[in-house]
Design brief:
The complex is a heterotrimer of chains A (450), B (310) and C (319). By secondary structure, chain A is mainly α. Chain A contains 16 helices and no strands. Chain B has 310 residues and is α+β, with helices and mostly antiparallel strands. A 5-stranded mixed β-sheet of chain B has the order 3-9-8-5-6. In chain B, strands 2-1-4-7 form a 4-stranded mixed β-sheet, with no helix packed on it. In chain B, a hairpin with an 8-residue loop joins strand 16 and strand 17. Chain C has a single domain, classed as Alpha-Beta Plaits, CATH 3.30.70. Chain C has a 5-stranded mixed β-sheet. In chain C, 52% of the residues are buried. The chains are: A mainly alpha (450), B alpha+beta (310), C alpha+beta (319). Chains in contact: A-B, A-C, B-C. Chains A and C meet through helix 6 of A and strand 2, helix 3, helix 4 and strand 6 of C.
């Protein structure tokens, strides 16, 4: 089977879900939209009555919103990061993974960027950040870095989408759907697969790959510094930036495994997303997980050994007190178990891997929660511990954010191929480099352009 | 040292009150009075005797005699609380020291060694009991006065130096007298005498006080002597010119040294600019890349540039 | 006696009285006038520069500080009342119910010896809160007081996370304002009306300090335990006595809360040196719950009367 035949086969498989809407799709998307709308209603209540509708108070000033913020920023880390690193190192097995990795990043980062705005007491004054922004504030670093990273991720996603959009533009033609055709025309920016076009795309892509890795690290660092630059016990730590970055890679990789599994199942992509891909991602998951465990150990050893100031109270509460079930579940279920399962070749099977990936992400969300909330509930002065229980509004908004995350991925997957066709083809072309390969898109197939 | 000063100051106020209240209307010169002489030995095991009794109104002389056997290096300065008086130092060389008081206040007063070391406080302390009644006393306090000549006030580098002399009624200097200095100050709707320092007179009865003014203008400086032993209280107010040398800015106040190191301050100046430049650079790269992608469309259009490159 | 001291005010500015009748009426008049044209009166906008530039004004600037004499504080348990400082603060600022800008804690000193500790904003020189504010809404004024510009605050609560003393409070919902507060002339030095979704805290009664008055808590304290100090003039008063600030601190082993954090607080505590203070460990002294301004029946008119009564302070000092 030569490259063009394989491309033909891939196109059939990958482009099939783009056409037609199944009942299941409508139900799924309808549910997501409904949940998002519920979240909007909850947010409308919050805007009307203020943050009083949340469970936050003068002691525990941040709750699940900020936990979500950190969690989503973590999810966003792995996608482009892994895609960029694998592309730069020329790992062949990346080819079917890149598209939905980047998509996961964009979707997670969009939700992540929303969270601080939802958490604000005065969302009507968001523009103050632009007018009065102080660069000395760690929060403004977030305001600078997260949109930059989001823009970078979008551009990165867009760049490698150009050839596929062009392909779709040519395949759909005006007669299928005018709107869609126009969309693909815009995203395809008159791509014809010419060498000059390829060169330019490669140049842009390489610059983006080089920029997106430090930007990803910067994002997680600045997120961690919201906490790390305060005096609070549990936050006042120098390793927070790398700790958060590694945690982000870990949870992001776990989310990639989950997303890959779902697409493989729903879109029947077993041929392309093979067991091998799960195995490779599992190795990455295990590696990041081990580094994360090492950081966890280093973080807690140094504070547990010294038991400085309020740290002893905090650790007591974390390890043996109110938060102990969460902490130990997060540790064993969310960190240790996934690492063990992913590290042992025998247990590295798809169902087990997906289970521990979901577990890892639940664990990581819990980990974010027990970083944010207990430190805040620790009394700074001799008063009682702060109490925090999320209210319905917070829970609805949190659910809505997850629904929004899924919805973004769903909508994108409806519009664009979830596996990068041109990248796969490129790989096959390289495989069959001996043979004379015609250009991917002969000029004859070009749709007439105005 | 601090505690002694505070004790003296607080007791001085008590004494001043007593004096002002006029306990002794029938005062006769102290010299005319036969002094009640008492000797107290300072020994290894404490004071001997530990309790002495005198009658109110008597002129009392207590002589402390150094009498250590086992501890040849011991040294003491004896103080009598409540009468604000302190002896010379006694040790192996100078074995005797005498304090004189006019026992005008009835009550029980502790005398003890004031050197803060070892067990002095516990061992070397005794009690003076001043009994009321007989009225046979009538010894009066010696009048004193504080004098601050205009020449005794000098200003250098914004600091005001005042030489106050403490003299008795025969213009003889009184050494070891504590002079407290006040200025009149008003703040937040309240005004009053604000204690700004305390100095002890030297052998020639002079106390040198240095004041760093926090105000500008003519300040009223009050010097107070609270009385001591056989000496009566006295006070004097003079005007001193003052100009505040120090100009406080935020974070640079007279009190605690504060503010950041210069390097950090400078870092604060350029760091935001660097950060903004970095972000701007990144966004410039974004625009460049998007431009590249847009240029893609120009390439195949058969324009002169496109053909040339292809 | 003539202590010539240049006014702490910048030349040409009269001392502000944020709530004088004239201002209130002026406000109403202006509101009426503007109501016709449909323009909303703009609140005072102060310069919310986080960094204060050295100004070459004529006189020395006031640098406000505070001393709290723990030897005197009994949490008002001995007079069987709620802490009067807190109540005075609530009444002065119409502190939204549920908040306390000043709190009295029972603290264990060395050896488990209990005493009371009034805790207000420390007005740190190296303030963690002003550093982290993303919009410069909280800042130091030239007199060293940490203020909040409620017109600018976006309610991110980063400052609350940063404050190591937990003094900052947040208006989670719509705060209850006294009637007429909407017309009060807002300034960060006297933030009225309170606004939803913004951070609140003690600002050392900057508005009163300007008028030469000690803070409401200090004037409310029946024990004269709280003193206002000016570090420039090196003088302090508790509303009764005037004393030299530095001398008082040095004489009485003053300390600051969490000094090791390097925040350089401007509030000093006096434990004394060896004097007995606090209470016996077996005495179960629990300060009563302070009443909010509503429970005290405070109104703007009453506050104004109170201010008027304070206009004529006794000038008799310690003499």
């Amino acid at each position: 089977m030569n490259a063009s035949e394989r491309q033909q086969r891939l196109e059939e498989r990958v482009l099939a879900p783009l056409t037609g809407f199944s009942q299941t799709w409508f139900i799924w998307t309808g549910c997501l939209i409904a949940l998002s709308v519920l979240g909007f209603i909850a947010y409308a209540y919050q805007v009307r009555d203020g943050l009083a509708v949340t469970g936050m108070g003068d002691d525990v000033i941040w709750g699940v919103y900020i936990s979500n913020f950190v969690f989503f920023s973590g999810l966003s880390m792995a996608g482009t990061f892994i895609s960029a690193i694998l592309r730069l190192t020329g790992a062949e097995w990346r080819r079917p993974l890149t598209r939905f990795s980047e998509l996961t990043t964009v979707a997670a980062l969009s939700m992540c960027a929303l969270m601080p705005a939802i958490d604000m007491g005065r969302p009507d004054r968001l523009w103050h950040l632009l007018v009065y922004g102080r660069l000395e504030s760690p929060l403004l670093w977030d305001i600078l870095v997260i949109p930059t990273y989001l823009a970078a991720s979008l551009i990165y996603l867009f760049l490698f989408l150009i050839p596929d959009s062009a392909l779709l533009r040519d395949r759909t033609g005006v007669r299928v759907s005018g709107a869609r055709h126009r969309l693909y025309s815009i995203f395809g920016v008159r791509w014809r697969g010419l060498p000059e076009q390829r060169r330019r795309l490669e140049l842009g892509g390489t610059i983006m790959m080089l920029m997106i890795i430090p930007l990803g690290v910067a994002t997680h660092s600045v997120v961690s510094w919201i906490f790390g630059l305060t005096f609070r016990a549990g936050w006042n730590s120098t390793i927070f930036a790398p700790y958060f970055a590694v945690g982000a890679l870990y949870s992001g990789t776990a989310m990639l495994i989950t997303v890959m599994f779902i697409f493989r199942r729903v879109y029947h992509l077993e041929e392309y997303l093979t067991e091998k891909h799960f195995q490779y991602l599992a190795i990455l998951l295990a590696a990041f997980g081990i580094i994360y465990l090492y950081f966890t150990f280093a973080e807690y050893l140094t504070v547990t050994y010294k038991l400085e100031g309020g740290e002893d109270l905090l650790l007591g509460e974390l390890f043996f007190g109110r938060y102990a079930p969460l902490v130990w579940f997060g540790f064993f279920g969310g960190q240790l178990l996934p690492v063990v399962i992913a590290a042992i070749p025998k247990t590295r099977t798809i169902p087990l891997l997906v289970t521990v990936s979901v577990l890892a992400n639940i664990g990581m969300w819990i980990k974010r929660f027990v970083i944010v909330v207990p430190s805040l509930s620790l009394p700074l002065m001799p008063y009682a511990w702060g109490v925090y229980t999320p209210t319905a509004a917070e829970i609805f908004i949190t659910i809505a954010s997850f629904a929004g995350f899924a919805l973004l991925i769903t909508i994108f997957a409806k519009l664009f191929p979830i596996i990068s066709i041109w990248e796969m083809t490129e790989g096959w072309e390289e495989e069959h480099s001996a043979a004379e390969v015609p250009p991917a898109m002969p000029p004859a197939q070009l749709a007439p352009q105005g | 040292m601090k505690s002694r000063r505070l004790a003296l100051a607080s007791l001085a106020i008590l004494l001043a009150f007593t004096v002002i209240a006029g306990v002794h209307p029938l005062a006769t010169p102290a010299v005319a009075q036969e002094a009640t002489k008492i000797t107290v030995k300072v020994t290894d095991s404490g004071l001997d005797p530990e309790t002495i009794e005198v009658e109110q109104g008597k002129l009392v002389e207590i002589t402390f005699i150094w009498d250590h056997k086992a501890y040849p290096n011991e040294e003491h300065i004896m103080v009598l609380e409540g009468y604000n008086v302190e002896s010379d130092k006694i040790d192996a060389q100078h074995k005797e020291a005498t304090i004189k008081i006019v026992a005008n206040k009835p009550g029980t007063f502790t005398f003890k060694c004031d050197l803060e070391c070892d067990l002095h406080d516990f061992l070397q302390n005794g009690v003076l009991k001043v009994k009321t009644g007989s009225g046979g006393g009538g010894a009066a306090l010696t009048k004193t006065k504080i004098s601050i000549e205009p020449a005794a006030i000098s200003i250098k580098d914004g600091k005001v130096t005042v030489n106050a002399s403490l003299l008795d009624d025969k213009d003889q200097p009184i050494p070891k007298g504590d002079i407290t200095f006040f200025i009149n100050q008003s703040f937040a709707g309240r005004s009053g005498l604000v204690e700004i320092g305390e100095e002890r007179t030297g052998p020639v009865g002079q106390a040198r006080f240095v004041y760093e003014p926090t105000l500008t203008g003519t300040l009223k400086l009050t010097a107070k002597f609270e009385g001591m032993g056989i000496y009566d209280a006295s006070e004097l107010a003079v005007d001193i010119p003052a100009s505040r040398a120090f100009q406080a800015e935020f974070g640079e106040s007279v009190l605690p040294a504060s503010g950041h190191s210069q390097e950090l301050v400078e870092l604060k100046d350029w760091a935001p600019a660097a950060l903004i430049s970095l972000i701007a650079l990144i966004w410039a790269a974004f625009i460049f890349i998007l431009y590249q992608a847009w240029r893609v469309s120009r390439v195949g259009d058969g324009g002169p540039g496109g053909d040339a490159s292809a | 006696m003539e202590t010539e001291r240049t006014s702490p005010q910048p030349a040409g500015k009269s001392p502000r009285q944020p709530l004088s009748r004239r201002r209130l009426l002026g406000g109403i008049g202006a509101a009426a006038a503007l109501g016709a044209t449909g323009v909303i009166p703009l609140a005072n906008h102060v310069s919310a520069e986080p960094e204060v530039k050295a100004s070459a004004s004529t006189g020395p600037k006031r640098q406000w500080a505070m001393v709290i004499d723990l030897r005197k504080c009994e949490g008002c348990t001995t007079i069987d009342k709620a802490p009067q400082c807190v109540e005075a603060c609530n009444a002065e600022h119409f502190v939204p119910p549920g908040q306390e800008w000043l709190q009295v804690f029972e603290v264990e000193g060395p050896g488990g010896h209990p005493h009371f500790l009034p805790r207000l904003c420390m007005q740190c020189e190296n303030a963690p809160c002003t550093k982290v504010c993303p919009v410069g809404a909280t800042y130091h004024n030239e007199e060293g007081i940490v203020l909040i510009n409620h017109d600018r605050c976006i309610g991110c609560r980063m400052c609350m996370a940063a404050c190591p003393y937990g003094v900052r409070r947040f208006n989670w919902g719509e705060p209850e304002n006294p009637p007429g507060a909407a017309l009060a002339n807002y300034s960060p030095e006297y933030p009225l009306p309170h606004r939803k979704g913004t951070v609140e805290k003690c600002m050392l009664c900057a508005h009163r300090a300007k008028d030469g008055k000690i803070p409401a808590c200090a004037s409310g304290c029946p024990m004269f335990a709280i003193s206002l100090a000016d570090m420039t003039e090196d003088v302090a008063t508790n509303g009764k006595d005037v004393f030299k600030f530095s001398r008082f601190l040095a004489d009485n082993s003053a300390y600051r809360l969490k000094e090791d954090l390097g925040t350089k607080p401007r509030v000093w505590y006096i434990p004394g040196h060896g004097q007995e203070y606090g209470h016996h460990v077996d005495d179960n002294l629990i300060p009563k719950e302070p009443r909010s301004w509503q429970e005290q029946g405070m109104t703007l008119d009453k506050l104004e009367e109170k201010h008027k009564a304070e206009e004529h302070p006794q000038t008799e000092g310690a003499k």
